[in-house]
C-alpha cells in the first residue's frame, strides 16, 4: 500500500539524518572515554546509544507523516535496536559493526528465497517506482541479491581489518555510494524491460 506523499527533502532528512548525525557525533567523541556508573565507555558506544532513539524517532515520524513504512525500513530499525542495544549493554562495539552484515544477509536471504520459488520479492517493494516486465524483475532481483551478499562480506572485511574510523566512514558514505552506483549501472535493465505507463484515452 502506497503511503502519503511528503516533501522529498524532509523525507531525505528523516532517512539519512540519523546516519549523518552518527558520523558527526563519532568525529566529535572519537578517542574519548567517559566513566558512567562505574563503567568506562568510549565515544563510539555513546554515539551508538544516541543513534538508537534517534533512528526510532525519525522512523516513527516518517510513518506518522506518510502512513507507511516498507518492510526494509522496519527490519532496519529493528536490527538497529537489537545490535545497537547489545553494543551499549555489553559495552562492545562489535555488535553494532555487525549490524549492516545482518541487514544485508537478511535482505539477500529473503530475495534469494523468492528466487528459488520463481518469484521476485523485490518487485513487491519497488514496482510502483520502477515498473518492469517479469523477466526484468528476475534479472534485477538476482543482481540485487548478489549485491547484498557482497555488501555483507565487504562490511565484515572492513570492520574486522580496519579502524573504527574507517568503518564509520564506510558505513556513512561508502554503503550509500555503492547502492547508488549499483542502481545507476542497472540502466540497461530498466531500459530493456521497462513498462511505459499507459496514457488515459482522450476520447
From TrEMBL:
Topology with respect to the bilayer: Multi-pass membrane protein
Query: Where is the protein found, in the record's own terms?
Result: Cell inner membrane
Pfam families, alphabetized: IspA
Entry keywords, A to Z: Cell inner membrane, Cell membrane, Membrane, Transmembrane, Transmembrane helix
Q: Which domain of life is it from?
A: Bacteria
UniProt KW Chloroplast keyword? no
Q: Which residues cross the membrane?
A: 12-29, 41-62, 74-90, 102-118, 139-160, 166-185
**What InterPro entries is this protein classified in?**
YciB (IPR006008)
Protein's job: Plays a role in cell envelope biogenesis, maintenance of cell envelope integrity and membrane homeostasis.
Q: Which family does this protein fall into?
A: Belongs to the YciB family.
HAMAP family, per the entry: YciB (MF_00189)
The molecule here is called Inner membrane-spanning protein YciB
Q: Which organism is it from?
A: Acidimangrovimonas pyrenivorans
At the highest ranks, the source species' classification is:
Bacteria, Pseudomonadati, Pseudomonadota, Alphaproteobacteria, Rhodobacterales
Amino acid at each position: 500500500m502506497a503511503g502519503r506523499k511528503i516533501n522529498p527533502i524532509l523525507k531525505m532528512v528523516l532517512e539519512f539524518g540519523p546516519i549523518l548525525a552518527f558520523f558527526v557525533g563519532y568525529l566529535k567523541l572519537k578517542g574519548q572515554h567517559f566513566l558512567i556508573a562505574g563503567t568506562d565507555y568510549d565515544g563510539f558506544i555513546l554515539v551508538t546509544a544516541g543513534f538508537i532513539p534517534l533512528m526510532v524517532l525519525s522512523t516513527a515520524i516518517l510513518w506518522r507523516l506518510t502512513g507507511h513504512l516498507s518492510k526494509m525500513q522496519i527490519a532496519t530499525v529493528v536490527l538497529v535496536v537489537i545490535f545497537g542495544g547489545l553494543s551499549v549493554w555489553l559495552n562492545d562495539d562489535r555488535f553494532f559493526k555487525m549490524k549492516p552484515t545482518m541487514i544485508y544477509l537478511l535482505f539477500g536471504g529473503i530475495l534469494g528465497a523468492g528466487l528459488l520459488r520463481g518469484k521476485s520479492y523485490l518487485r513487491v517493494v519497488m514496482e510502483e517506482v520502477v515498473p518492469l516486465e517479469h523477466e526484468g524483475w528476475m534479472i534485477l532481483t538476482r543482481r540485487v541479491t548478489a549485491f547484498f551478499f557482497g555488501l555483507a562480506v565487504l562490511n565484515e572485511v572492513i570492520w574486522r581489518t580496519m579502524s573504527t574510523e574507517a568503518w564509520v566512514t564506510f558505513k556513512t558514505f561508502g554503503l550509500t555510494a555503492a547502492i547508488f552506483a549499483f542502481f545507476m549501472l542497472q540502466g540497461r535493465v530498466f531500459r530493456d524491460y521497462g513498462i511505459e505507463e499507459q496514457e488515459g484515452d482522450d476520447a
